[in-house]
Design goal:
Strand content: 15-25%
Number of strands: 20
Distance between the termini: 28 Å
Number of helices: 19
């Protein structure tokens, strides 16, 4: 057993700003114990998979929920009817990727572990946990993270690691070539923003890390403004507009040409979104328009489908004085701390993770722009082909945490509750958890 400090349960928790990906991890010993009599199909079905919950606390002004204090969390949020969403107050524990509300985060974790996953306190207190936090987390916030893990949740062993590092581990588990070199670029594009991290032999090049402050939240807010101006006032409908973005928006491969097409023929890219009724939680995209759909309130969307996602590549369109994701990747690779001899290797190994990567057309557009930015006169420059390690890129980080459980390195990263009680943050520094 690689996780020598763990004598019971393992938990991997990707604490995203929008969603939490959580599930019981699996070590080699548990594999041998649980799969000795399974055939190939049963073994595939028994592989650990995470569950996804909103990282969100809701409070209804007029009714109480099954949770204490009238709070609504976890899968309960998906059961809120559209008519009641306007009366809900929303609170996210994380802002710009950083956990800023320890109490709200604890409520969410307690509810998911207890009510959704049916873990007992004894299970939690005997658990080894791998949890994510962003690079460059300020030391006071990192201390709050560890206080939450060891003093409030009381995990037996825990470590806090950046999501791009776990994405690298997932890539290594899928590619023997990458596992040998551990040299790549990880692009983590999620709700709070996009982080680009170059790794050389498994170590992040800290001075070369780039961050683009455009993610799912910025795109949703921009889409709210456009829809409110063109159609209906949705400035307070974050939940609904986010669903509209996920179900109808895509990344244009030629933004200027598509805008010309829409101006010449608005129906060229128009899609209809059926707004929710009082009993629904969200609406839905109408793919095959029928006469029966006319009984519902429909919202036509054309340029709205591409202008929000264009911000990932052109943040200056809404006043952000920053590079887009392709330019930020090239800037990270070109940093003086990275040897020019390593740059072709990094360009050939770009791993993508995060919810924005699931946008239709994102990977194709990113590869196209990266290849156009690579110096055409450099005969050694390879063709850039960014890739994902999972069908769902939002789950890559969780699977990387699960892979880390079977890596000898994990024993040097884990901190025990006893060490925390005796040494506090100094125990975390000695175990490899630093102010990343």
């Amino acid at each position: 057993l690689v996780v020598t400090k763990c004598n019971s349960m393992c938990l991997v928790l990707d604490n995203g700003s929008f969603d939490i990906k959580i599930g019981a991890g699996e070590t080699r010993r548990s594999k041998k114990r649980g799969r000795t009599q399974l055939n190939e199909e049963e073994e595939q079905a028994s592989k650990p998979t995470p569950r996804v919950f909103p990282n969100l606390v809701c409070k209804h002004k007029s009714r109480t929920s099954s949770t204490s204090g009238g709070l609504v969390m976890g899968s309960e949020i998906y059961r809120i009817q559209s008519a009641e969403l306007g009366a809900m107050q929303f609170k996210r524990p994380c802002e710009k990727g950083f956990m800023v509300d320890t109490d709200a985060q604890r409520y969410v974790w307690d509810y998911i572990l207890g009510s959704e996953m049916e873990w007992t306190l004894d299970n939690v207190h005997r658990t080894t946990a791998i949890i994510t936090a962003p690079y460059f987390t300020p030391k006071p916030l990192l201390r709050e993270w560890n206080e939450l893990l060891f003093e409030l949740m009381e995990f037996e062993h825990a470590t806090v690691l950046p999501a791009p590092y776990l994405c690298l581990k997932d890539g290594c588990s899928k590619s023997p070539t990458l596992a040998n070199s551990e040299t790549c670029i990880v692009v983590d594009s999620g709700f709070a923003g996009t982080t680009i991290v170059p790794f050389v032999t498994g170590s992040p090049m800290m001075s070369a890390i780039k961050r683009v402050a455009v993610g799912g939240k910025v795109m949703t807010n921009y889409l709210k403004e456009i829809i409110s101006f063109r159609h209906y006032n949705m400035l307070e409908e974050d939940h609904l507009v986010n669903h509209i973005k996920d179900s109808t928006c895509f990344v244009s491969q030629n933004f200027a040409a598509d805008m010309k097409r829409i101006r010449a023929n608005p129906a060229a890219l128009t899609a209809f979104y059926r707004l929710p009724t009082n009993e629904d939680n969200v609406g839905q995209l109408i793919k095959n328009f029928t006469q029966a759909d006319r009984d519902y309130q429909l919202m036509p969307l054309a340029q709205e489908r591409i202008v929000a996602t264009e911000l990932l590549f052109r943040p200056s369109d809404v006043g952000f004085k920053q590079m887009g994701i392709p330019e930020a990747i090239i800037a990270a690779i070109s940093h003086e701390s990275i040897s020019p001899d390593l740059r072709p290797i990094l360009l050939e190994n770009i791993l993508l993770c995060g919810g924005n990567v699931k946008l239709r057309g994102f990977i194709k557009r990113l590869n196209m722009e990266l290849n156009s930015l690579v110096d055409e006169n450099d005969k050694f420059a390879p063709e850039v082909k960014a890739k994902v390690t999972r069908d769902d890129p939002a789950l890559s980080v969780w699977h990387g945490g699960n892979a880390l459980l079977n890596d000898p390195e994990v024993s040097n990263l884990l901190v025990s509750r006893r060490d925390w009680d005796e040494s506090g943050m100094s125990a975390c520094s000695l175990s490899g958890i630093k102010e990343f």
